Structure formats: structure tokens, C-alpha cells
Amino acid sequence: MGSPAPFLPLIGLVLFLLGASSTITSQQDPGPDPSSPGSAAHRCFCQVTGHLDDCTCDVESIDHINNHKLFPKLQRLLQTDYFRFYKVNLNKPCPFWNDHSHCGIRHCAVKLCELNEVPDGIKSDSFKYSEEAQGELEECGKAEKLGAVNSSLSEETRRAMLEWSRHDDTADRFCEADDEQSPDSQYVDLLLNPERFTGYKGPAAWRIWNSIYEENCFKPSTVRRPLNPLVSGQGSAEGTLFYSWLEGLCVEKRAFFRLLSGLHASINVHLSARYLLDDNWSGQRWGHNISEFQQRFDAELTEGEGPRRLRNLYFLFLIELRALSKVLPYFERPDFLLYTGDPAQDSRNKDLLLELLRLAKSFPLHFDENSMFAGDKKEAAKLKEDFRFHFRNISRIMDCVGCFKCRLWGKLQTQGLGTALKILFSERQIESLPESGSSPSSFQLTRQEVVALLNAFGRISTSIKELEHFRDLLAKVQ
């Protein structure tokens, strides 16, 4: 057998040429260009940029303040005891149709809290917001029952709390709140029940959204919402007709639709970002599902509607951000506490909350709510009442959601948005707040409203942060 030595130079030359060819190929084909009109990233995000309708703000300014400033602080706040426990009634019957079916998928279940898992200061019925109440409660630290806490309060503090509990702002509320005293209302640890994909879908889920869009968004029945999977024969012309009608609405009705569309978009972002990718004997793996995101937001797959939904998400962010900036004086009062029974933690939480709200207030491109309900006083009052009536209906529709985890987050986020709307249209009451919380005031927020407001904003903030991840992921997809 001859020696292989003469062939070595030839083999080396071949390998060199193959390597050079590979280098040339990689230089000529660097991968998908996210700015290309045909790219997945472009189809989802090409319109999610620049100036937002009915606002002085742009998408990029929101991305900057949220992703780099608000989001980290908000996540720290929502991890605390005060904001992680939410009381909710998941057993209220649907008020609009008879439907006793519930999601049988295990991911739809909600883990409820045992009473000993909730701090005493939170589950106490008296909502101790004043420093005087806190001081007197500390003296009763050895009491074994919550009832003993209430009996220790001074007569002055008891009268102030009674006045607070009697305060009825039902006429100013934009949503139906659960009765916290009902035996069916129970505490839920939101950190142990994250919002994510549960598998709840199909006709039951679409019935919820159809009731919201078709019956409660100031839309005539002759105009169909595009891409309703329960209605056949829809085309792109219908989508164009729908948005032509929407753009012809007054700013209030247009804003109402965009808020609900933004909320829907936010929920879909969460479901796509926390999707069950694998479930086997070794455990569960949750993560970003790019194809699920594309199904909901890709312009080609949604007949151009997906990017509009994402723009509405930014509009919703602006509305809730504006509410946080407006309510700052309410939380700045010296006697207001985020009461849990732990003075050190309560003080830190309030400092963090005020830091967050002041940052929100510093944003220079806020939505101007004064542009709404600003015409003829009689017509404006009627429109505002219609606005409130429709949103209350939507909050009641949440009791028709068959998936308990979806119901939990639906109720919390509608209450949070309803609280934001209540704040926006209570400017005079907030400006005339008494310095002492023990004095009567025409503006109050319950603990439930405070928790819902911040957690709902946390969901919107998280959605916008997640869009950053999806942009990066889709940039790698053709």
C-alpha cells in the first residue's frame, strides 16, 4: 500500500476552499433582516412606532420610561406583602347567561390562601391607614384574635374609620367590586397564581370577548369586529370598514374601544410570553412562544389588525400612567399607610410607592384627560354615564369566565383600569383632599382598589417589557 503523504496538500487545499466558501456564504447571508418588509419582526412591529393617536406621546418614549425606569421599581413593589394578596370572589354566578361549565384544565385552577398565610394587618376588616391606628394596633400585638384589634382603638379613630367605611362612592366607580365581607371572597397570593397560558380557549372564551366588543364598545350591530372566529366569511375589507367606523367616533368612545383592545392585547402578550412549552415527567417548562405571538399580532395573520392591537396597548399604558400621576397627593398624605402590621416594611413600601408615582408624574408626555367629556355639559354628563355603565358591564362579564385563573386576572385588571378611570375623573376631589385622613373626604380608595390599580399597571408594564423580548426573538425568524 502506498504512502498517503502525497495527498495531504490536496486535502488541505480542498478544506481551505470549503472554508473560504463558507465564509463568503456567511458574509452574503447574515440571516433575517428585521427591517425587511417580509420579516416576522417587521410584520408585527412595523406600525408599533412613532406618534400615538389622540396623544402627544410616542411609542419610543414609553418604551424608555417603562423598560429602564418604571418596570424594575414596580416589580419590587408588587413582590411585597401589601400588593401580593388580593381578595376576590371567584364563585359569583354569571349575570348575563346561564353557564355552569368551568375549565377542567389543571392550569385553570387557583391556589387560595389559608388564613394564617395572610398578614393580620391585611385581613383585618378595618383597613388601618392612619398612623394613630397603627400605633394602637402595635399595643395589641399579643391579641390572639383580630376582634381584639378593633376593640383597642380610640373612640376618635373608630369614628374616623366608621366614616371611612360609610363612604359610598358607588356613583363614581367604573366597575362592580366584590363584596369583601362575603364568605365566598377569599385571599389569593398573586405571586403563586401568575397570569399565563392555561389552555382556556374556543367558543367559551370567545363568547366573553364577543360580549365585550359586540355589546359594550358603543358599536352598532351592523359593523362586525374583524377576525371573529365564530363568524365565517370575514375578509380584509371588513377590517378596513370597522376601523373607518371607529375613527369616525368621538374621542371618548374611541378611547373606550382602544382601552379594551389594549387590555386584550396585554393579556395575549402575557399568554404568549408565559406559555407551557413542555410538560412531562421531568417538570414543566414555561417560556416565550413565538408562533403564538405571531398568531395574535402578525399583520399578515391578523389582516392588519395585530399591530393596531399593540398600539392600543401603549394607549392603555398612557391612561394608567396618567392616573398614577394624578393620585400622588392621595398617597402623599402623612397618615396614609400601606398597612400590613409590620411598621418597617410599611414605611419602605410607602417610600417605594411614592418614588414610583413621582417618576410617573415626571413623564413629560402625559395623556390629556381634559380632552374627554369637555363639550356641552348635559351631553358630556350623559356620555360619561354611558361610559361608566358600559365599563361596569364589562367588569360583571368577568364573572362569566370559565377559567378561574383567567377570571382572577380579568377581575383584577378590570378593577385596576376602573380605578384608574375613577382617579382621572376625580381631579377636583383629589385636589381638595384634607391633610388628615381622619377628616371626611369625597375621594377614597379601598385597599382592593389600590392593589388592583398597581397590579393592573404592573401587567401593562410587563407586557411592554415583553415586547422588547419578542422583537429580539422575531428578528431571528424569517
What does this structure look like?
The protein has 19 helices and four strands. The protein has 478 residues and is mainly α. Strands 1-2 form a two-stranded antiparallel ribbon. It has a two-stranded antiparallel sheet with strand order 3-4. Strand 3 and strand 4 form a beta hairpin. Helix 3 runs antiparallel to helix 15, helix 13 crosses helix 17 and helix 16 runs antiparallel to helix 17. The protein is globular, with a radius of gyration of 26 Å.
Please describe the structure with a list of short key phrases separated by commas or semicolons.
478 residues; mainly alpha; two-stranded antiparallel sheet; disordered N terminus
The number of helical elements comes to 19
Number of strands: 4
Residue share in β-strands: under 5%
Biggest β-sheet: strands ordered side by side in the sheet: 1-2
Main pleated sheet: 2 strands, antiparallel
Order of H and E elements: HHHHEHHHHEHHHEEHHHHHHHH
Care to give the gist of this entry?
The protein is mainly alpha-helical and 478 residues long.
Write the layout of secondary structure elements.
Elements: H1 8-28, H2 40-45, H3 59-78, H4 81-84, E1 85-89, H5 120-123, H6 131-138, H7 146-151, H8 155-166, E2 185-189, H9 203-216, H10 236-247, H11 251-273, E3 275-280, E4 283-287, H12 290-297, H13 306-326, H14 328-332, H15 343-361, H16 377-397, H17 404-424, H18 427-431, H19 447-474
Antiparallel strand pairs: 1-2, 3-4
Helix pairs in contact: 3-15, 3-19, 9-16, 11-12, 11-13, 11-19, 13-15, 13-17, 13-19, 16-17, 17-19
